[in-house]
Amino acid sequence: MSKDVTKKEKKAPSAYVVIFLITVVVAVLTWIIPGGVYELDEAGNAIAGTYAGAESNPQGIWDIGMAPINGMNGAIAISLSIMLFGSFLQMMDESGAIKIYLSNIAKKFQTNYHVLIWVLVFIMGVMGTTEGCYEEGIIYMLMFMPIIMALGLDTVVTVMIIVFGTQGGCLASIINPFAVGVASGIAGISPGEGMLTRINLFVVVLSLISIYICRYADKVKADPTKSSQYYRREEDIKKYPIEMDGDKKPTKEQKYSIIVFIMVFVILIIGCILWTSLNENFTFFQDFVTWIGTVPVLGTVLGRNITPFGDRYFGEISLLVLVGTFIVGMIHRLDMGKIIDIVVQGAASVVPTALVVPMARGIQVLMSDGGITSTILHFGESTLSSLPPVVFVLVCMVFYFAFASLMPSSTGLAAATMSIMAPLAVFAGVHETVMINIYLVALGLAKMIMPTSIVVMTCTQANHIGYGQWVKSNWKFVGLLAAVCYVIIVAAGVIF
Q1: Closest-CA residue to 156 (of 476, 483, 491, 472)
Q2: How many domains, in total, are found in the chain?
Q3: Structural domain of residue 288, as residue ranges?
Q4: How much is the mean pLDDT over the chain?
Q5: Where do the TM regions start and end (predicted)?
Q6: Separation between Cα atoms, residue 67 and residue 361, nearest integer Å
Q7: Cα–Cα distance between 12 and 1 in angstroms, integer?
């Protein structure tokens, strides 16, 4: 067994190695691909037809070394939120509350784990389609993992639920303001256009994902040795323990802790949904915060710069989970020193995962500094417009998949490309909504499989799943999803 383990570990480079190698490849490309720039509008979006060559800025060894460090400038809030979620989950673990409730859930679904998988996949899908759940996927992975392990399955099942579930939701992005909201605004159409197609995508894709995961789960349940992670099964069981024996009931303090736990996630979700993009007249949260600021004593004590629901991001998420951690600690009457120790211990446990984020962001830094992003985009602009509509959709999906692999940011990708690609679609005889759906599908698919995807690399890294193994096991399924999505997009936007 030990020899097998050694071989597996040698064949599976860590997330850091994979990302570093891609960083080097991108740096080499800056020496090959000429530099270029687009003129930008007031919102910072590229203007179609304004591309001009620019002086190249090849990235050297120093730039490769600085890339992840500069990447931390845009990733510090994400990394910090991951670490503080580690603190929150550590506090919940210390309280014993989450163990009891997860144990009860595991017992309930012990003989019907298919239902649990479908429910979790669609929950993650809703998170993705409403608020673009992506970097925070690791947080839900840590929460779901003990349940899945207690059912006799493996860590891969949970990672698939998180990665495919969240990105299946993002792929459809029915109302995701950070994706369809931004892209529609740039294209000059309503976010509601094309929604029926995205609803169809959501239902079909999430159903296929659920079936796929259930089939894999059945295989592992029947024969644990079929799991690629069987060599470390005992370690994983110890890492994500749940006591399945006995009939323990939660104490009063543990019940209060679970209420806090649930409220933290409810507030997180409500706070991250951009409500005004769904209805520009829905300004209740902004108005409420403004009103608080006008109350003499209350406004001064609470602060006049409170971020309203709908405008919150990782900074506010970090504060939320930190407050939740302290509240749970106080419920259990822990002294301040013990609470601080738990915060530090929990944060330290996820530092390796948190460091993946700036490394992945470093790739985008090199592309931007090297000036090759606009050149790659111009290549697509100059080669796609003359294609027949059905071929145009296919080639655009491939183009967007490649571009999203290098820039897996929904808002960033839309800002960099949509002002060019949407008019390009019209020239090719395709409606703008088709291009937006292509962008969404390609981005979602890229974030399911590519090594620049933060959710893929953080979840696989945390569970010692080799990236090569992840690709080997799932590339055919991602290809199937791509084919299904292509048919749905063509049927909705081209044929009819």
Answers
A1: 472
A2: 1
A3: 281-309
A4: 84
A5: 12-33, 72-92, 113-132, 138-163, 170-189, 195-214, 258-278, 313-331, 387-406, 413-430, 436-456, 477-495
A6: 8
A7: 17
Contact 304, 293 (CB under 8 A): yes
The answer to the question of residue 213 being in a domain is: no
Element (H, E) at 411: helix 410-427
**For residues 185, 187, 191 and 197, what is the CA-based torsion angle, rounded to 10 degrees?**
-160
Neighbouring CB atoms inside 10 A of 357's CB total 26
Q: How far apart are CA 291 and CA 304, in angstroms?
A: 10
Whether 418 contacts 183, CB under 8 Å: yes
Residue 163 CA neighbour count, 13 Å, CB half: 28
439 in any annotated domain: no
Work out the burial of residue 57: count CB atoms within 10 Å of its CB; fewer than 13 is exposed, 13-18 middle, 19 or more buried: middle
415 burial type by CB count under 10 A (0-12 exposed, 13-18 middle, 19+ buried) = buried
Using DSSP's 3-state secondary structure scheme, residue 12 falls into: coil
Give domain status of residue 299, yes or no.
yes
pLDDT of residue 3: 43
On whether the CB atoms of residues 385 and 427 are closer than 8 A, the answer is yes
Among 95, 224, 103, 97, smallest CA distance to 152 is for 224
* DSSP 3-state of 224: helix
The residues, ordered by sequence, that sit 6+ positions from 358 with a Cβ below 8 Å of its Cβ are 68, 69, 71, 72, 75, 76, 79
Mean pLDDT, range 326-349, rounded to an integer: 92
Q: Strands of 30-91 (E only): list them.
A: 35-37, 52-54
User: Quick check: 372 and 33 in contact, CB under 8 A?
Assistant: yes
Concatenate the DSSP letters of all residues of 142-164 into one string: HHHHHHHHHTT--HHHHHHHHHH
Distance CA 441, CA 218 (A): 28
- pTM more than 0.90: no
Residue 403 falls inside a structural domain: no
Residue 94 near residue 344 (C-beta atoms within 8 A): no
CA distances for 329 relative to 97, 266, 278, angstroms: 12, 20, 37
